[in-house]
Design brief:
Length: about 240
């Protein structure tokens, strides 16, 4: 399976620079050996999707509500993302879990809503620094997987150790190898044969200089990139480091 290089633009980019960034990605996207996805903030989804139409670079949201519509001020439904041109959505990012109190159960409901609306979900899991210091990283991630993924699950999992996000501290190749092998085993335990085909992305300070070694680790099915996805040049350099299928 091709690796997936996904950019999570978080709360960055007004519409004009977002379109400029999307055009830069589009120009360099030809011939890369991976699938490409960008996830702009809600307000930039539509213009970015228009700028990327026909390019093969997909567009996603960064969150959605668990319900299809209703009295939920400030929330955005999965079907609205779809309507704006998104085909993917990130769900359960640690910044949502921490800043908005999202639980595994809510994440699972959002995943169901996303799939219902025709979106492919990327479900994020990962331990905090304290949990790792206490030796609980596999236990925590195992619980997040069983609580956050509905059965059956058609989507992608992103392992993002919270302590590596936006810190410049990347997990070592060995940490990543251990955790991705663990996530793979859990997916196979919980989903049987189908668990072998679920892509597992690594996220957390991935950048051009470390992408090649991280993307070469067994069971790493791509990357979820924050900071380095905000420059087309860096994002594309990571994409060029992807392992051919
Ligand atoms: P950074 O690449 O900025 O560490 O962010 C990773 C991330 O949270 C992607 O979802």
């Amino acid at each position: 399976m091709r690796q997936l290089i996904a950019g999570n633009w978080k709360m960055h980019m007004l519409r004009a620079p977002a379109v400029e960034l999307a055009r830069g990605v589009r120009e360099g996207a030809q011939g890369v050996a991976c699938d490409l996805l960008v996830c702009p903030p809600f307000t930039a989804i539509e213009p970015v999707a228009s700028a990327l139409a026909g390019s093969g670079v997909a567009v996603g949201g960064q969150d959605c509500h668990a319900k299809g519509q209703g009295a939920h001020t400030g929330d955005v439904a999965a079907v609205m993302l779809r309507d704006a041109g998104a085909t993917w959505v990130i769900i359960g990012h640690s910044e949502r879990r921490q800043n908005h109190g999202e639980t595994d159960e809510l994440v699972r409901e959002k995943v169901l809503a996303a799939v219902d609306a025709g979106l492919t979900p990327i479900v994020c899991v990962g331990e905090t620094e304290d949990q790792r210091a206490a030796g609980q990283e596999t236990e925590v991630v195992g619980w997040q997987i069983s609580g956050s993924l509905p059965k059956p699950f058609s989507g992608v999992v992103a392992y993002e150790p919270v302590w590596a996000i936006g810190t410049g501290r990347t997990a070592t190749g060995q940490d990543v190898a251990i955790m991705h092998a663990f996530v793979r085993d859990e997916l196979v335990r919980q989903f049987g044969e189908a668990g072998h085909d679920i892509r597992i992305l690594y996220g957390g300070s991935m950048r051009p200089a470390n992408a090649g070694s991280l993307l070469a680790v067994p069971h790493v099915g791509g990357g979820l990139i924050g900071g380095a996805s905000l420059k087309a040049e860096d994002f594309l350099a990571i994409a060029r480091a992807a392992k051919p299928a």
